[in-house]
Amino acid sequence: MSLDARQSDVPVTSREALEATFRGAERRDGRGLVGLEHEKLIYPAGSVRAVPYEGPAGIGALLARFEAEGWEPFREAPGLPVIALSRGQVTVSLEPGGQFELSGAPHDTARAAHAENAAHLSRLAEHTRALGLRVVTHGYRPFDVLSEMPWMPKSRYGAMRQTLGARGTHALHMMLMTATGQVSLDWHDEADCARKVTAAARLTPVTVALFANSPIVEGRESGFQSFRSRVWNDVDPARCGTPAFMLDGSFSYRRYVEWALEAPLLFLRREGRYLTPGLTFGQLLADGFDGRAALMSDWVDHLSTLFPEVRIKRVLEVRSADGNDGPMTGALAALMRGLLYDRQALDGVTEALALTPTQHRALHLAAQRDGLRGVAEGRSLRALAATVVELAAAGLSRLDPADRPLLAPLEAVLADGRSPAERTLERFRQRRSDSDFLG
Predict the structure, then answer these.
(1) What pairing do the DSSP bridges indicate for beta strands 100-103 and 90-94?
(2) What DSSP state is assigned to residue 295?
(3) How far apart are CA 147 and CA 140, in angstroms?
(4) 46: exposed, middle or buried (C-beta count within 10 Å: 0-12, 13-18, 19+)?
(5) Largest Cα–Cα distance of the chain, in whole Å?
(6) How far is residue 224 CA from its own chain's centroid?
(7) Which residues are CB-contacts of 246 (< 8 A; sequence separation ≥ 6)?
(8) What is the predicted pLDDT for the residue at 33?
């Protein structure tokens, strides 16, 4: 999540200026870097209720332990609580319900991104043990109740609670209850960005199925293997999902800008305050607000509050995986590197998943409900996933064979034929207590 750093006062009045954001992000040197984001759920040992920010064993105390190791604290203003930490290009931040997120540095290899995340998980485990806490890696909180959830002390979330919360029946569930693993990648030019966005968007049902790990909701079996993904169906259709132009090969910077212009602002920052003017970005661009033109920092803020399955900002983000453990999250980085950075694999996966928007939607819903066992219009998600992982393995073998072993957890999932959610359900059914299930 954005740290909402200092605002730019550069006015912006044209679509061309908005498109320039993406042109300026093109990596023309031929390198393709990989970054990982990994969200974890934090619980007290012996309890199944989320940890608040406050208190001697709260989220704030956990941040303080990292700060003592030399991480730079981030506050919205002097005297306010620490809500994030940074060290070099790495950030630790909080999602609205206290989900603890590492946003890693960009790396040349998936194994380097995975090693960074593994090292962080090791330190996090040590700090949580010292505070009587524990780390849980699921895509959705298994036992918490929305009405009892704590909110982290960040002004951005207060505004989003009001605006996004009014736009979808599951918007607050998304903010407070879900956790994910995400991969960030680069593109070289607009055509390359279009190819990668199309491939990643078409991959969404397979990614959901491979990483499905959120079958328990409020202490009961939900009927979905990825309830986290199901939640996104009812957040805000204006800013979520998979727009048709991401699937049919017609993606361009202009199309993405036009789509983004139609989405309402979740907030507008002015003089340190978070305003909710009830405008789309298109209206802000055309008319300004309170006598002032839109600012480039307004656009940056807006891009960070769009939530399609594949998002572009300064990087391309693949956002469709449930929260899983470290090895599975490393496998996600390797999967996307092998598929999107090797041209032969990129072409292969684009062709293998060439579906109409209706077919893609049906397959996505099947993945949410049934994981790898899902079938839609005769297409088996397990079979498609096997093809996808084989393409990634071949891509990595050509691109960088040392990343190839990171795919092992996905190959084990496919050999078993079950999404991680099914093993989670087994543990749930065999639990001695709810706390025992969380580990």
Answers:
(1) antiparallel
(2) B
(3) 15
(4) exposed
(5) 62
(6) 19
(7) 197, 198, 201, 308, 310
(8) 98
Q: What is the CA radius of gyration of the chain?
A: 21
**Contact in structure between 199 and 351 (CB atoms under 8 Å):** no
Q: Three-class SS string for 83-124? A: EEEEECCEEEEECCCCCEEEECCCECCHHHHHHHHHHHHHHH
Terminal-to-terminal C-alpha distance of the chain? 27
Task: Write down the pTM of the prediction.
Answer: 0.97
pLDDT at 9: 85
Q: Which structure tokens are listed for 297?
A: 């920092």
State how far the Cα of 271 lies from the Cα of 265, in Å rounded to an integer: 17
Neighbours of 273 (CB within 10 A): 10
> How many residues are listed for the chain in this entry?
439
Burial class of residue 35, CB neighbours in 10 A (0-12, 13-18, 19+) = buried
Q: How far apart are CA 94 and CA 175, in angstroms?
A: 11
pLDDT of residue 156: 96
Q: Which residues of the chain have pLDDT under 50?
A: 1
What pLDDT shows up at residue 439? 85
d(CA 215, CA 371): 10
Q: Pick from 211, 413, 399: which is nearest to 318 by CA?
A: 211
Residues 6+ apart with CB under 8 A from 89: 104, 105, 106
* Cα–Cα distance list, 325 to 71, 122, 321, 373 (Å): 24, 12, 12, 21
| Structure tokens belonging to residue 313 | 């900002």
Q: Residues 179, 240: contact at Cβ < 8 Å?
A: no
The pair of structure tokens assigned to 416 is 């078993």
Amino acid at 184: S
391 half-sphere exposure, CB direction, 13 A CA radius: 25
